[in-house]
Design goal:
Radius of gyration: 18 Å
Order of helices and strands: EHEHHEEHEHEHEEEHEHEEHEHHH
Helix content: 40-55%
Distance between the termini: 16 Å
Structural class: alpha/beta
Bound molecules: pseudouridine-5'-monophosphate, manganese (II) ion
Shape: globular
Strand content: 15-25%
């Protein structure tokens, strides 16, 4: 069987790809593991709608009964948002979920893998994984994926449940450019600033597309991280977010939560400790990132394909 035969691409998305129209991939782990119900379903629907309103085609990616799906129906979106114990699928889990016919929600890493197989160039999410604080060997598979797979990932940085300086060092070592969209600083998810700088600032989708396109034209492997700060009106004060995170980290330590359960655990604790304010910030930035990703996908689609274009 060929790689492609494991993918089920919706006809609408297939047509958009064949015609060279802009498509934005969306992950499903944030639906199944990153947000509680019903905000998760609201976020998933809002992101899809926002991508469309900004002139691109949304492609939410998930594994359903062992089939890698690119584009979910409304019913499937609901299924991913309401079913308990959906497997969190990162790169290493993809062959297992497919071979064993499981349901799985894809992380940024697995979404990038699948998006690339399908011929998509841009994805949107909330935050990427990174190097965990106090666990320097717990490095998210999102980072090596960014180093090897040519996808532009639009996000609001990474949560400071992670070791942000260590995460940025890792990306530098592995040649992943970090582009600030309307910012000079690497955003800390709930807050617009972290005190850490980006590699370049851009102020339009065209400028972002020029850097992404040039990386691929040069034949440099891997992706580009485009970071967009949470909209000002939804931002959490840095100290408030930081206190909640510190407390959540202590709770995780005490209960021995590790590995792939750590991120979902920390996120739910932070939501509880901030009385839902973290959720409001999360929803606002997801919508905003979907819009920016769609605009960048449009700017990329209007450029001639690079001669050294990464192969699908
Ligand atoms: N960070 C968030 N929300 C999320 C995630 C990360 O703010 O939902 C999810 C994403 O799917 C990301 C994954 O790719 O967690 C990283 O998990 P891990 O650290 O286990 O690689
Ligand atoms: Mn991890």
């Amino acid at each position: 069987m060929s790689k492609e035969s494991h993918l089920q691409i919706s006809s609408e998305i297939r047509m958009a790809l064949d015609e060279g129209r802009p498509v934005v991939a969306l992950e499903s782990s944030l639906i199944s593991h990153g947000l509680p119900h019903p905000q998760n379903l609201e976020a998933a629907r809002t992101m899809e709608r926002t991508v469309r309103e900004n002139g691109a085609m949304p492609a939410t990616i998930a594994v359903i009964e062992g089939k890698i799906r690119v584009g979910l129906t409304e019913g499937e979106l609901e299924y991913m948002a309401t079913r308990e114990n959906v497997r969190k699928v990162s790169r290493r889990d993809l062959p297992i979920a497919v071979a064993q016919g499981l349901d799985g929600a894809t992380t940024v890493a697995a979404t990038m893998c699948v998006a690339h197989l399908a011929g998509i160039e841009v994805m949107a999410t909330g935050g990427i994984g990174g190097v965990h604080r106090g666990h320097p060997f717990d490095v998210s598979a999102d980072l090596p994926e960014l180093a090897r797979t040519p996808i532009a990932v639009v996000c609001s940085g990474a949560k400071s449940i992670l070791d942000l300086p260590a995460t940025l060092e890792w990306l530098e070592t592995h040649g992943v450019p970090i582009v600030g969209y309307g910012t000079d600083e690497f955003p800390a998810f709930y807050s617009r600033s972290s005190g850490l700088t980006v590699d370049a600032r851009v102020d339009s989708p065209e400028e972002a597309a020029r850097i992404i396109h040039t990386k691929w034209e040069l034949g440099l492997e891997g992706g580009v991280l485009v970071v967009v700060p949470v909209p000002e009106e939804a931002e959490l004060p840095f100290d408030l977010a930081e206190r909640a995170i510190e407390q959540a980290l202590k709770a995780a330590e005490k209960r021995g939560v590790r590995g792939k359960a750590l991120t979902p655990f920390l996120l739910s604790q932070v939501a509880r400790l901030t009385e839902g304010r973290s959720l409001a910030a999360n929803l606002a930035l997801l919508k905003n990132n979907a819009a920016v990703a769609a605009q960048i996908a449009r700017a990329l689609a209007s450029r001639a394909p690079p001669s050294e274009y990464p192969k699908r």
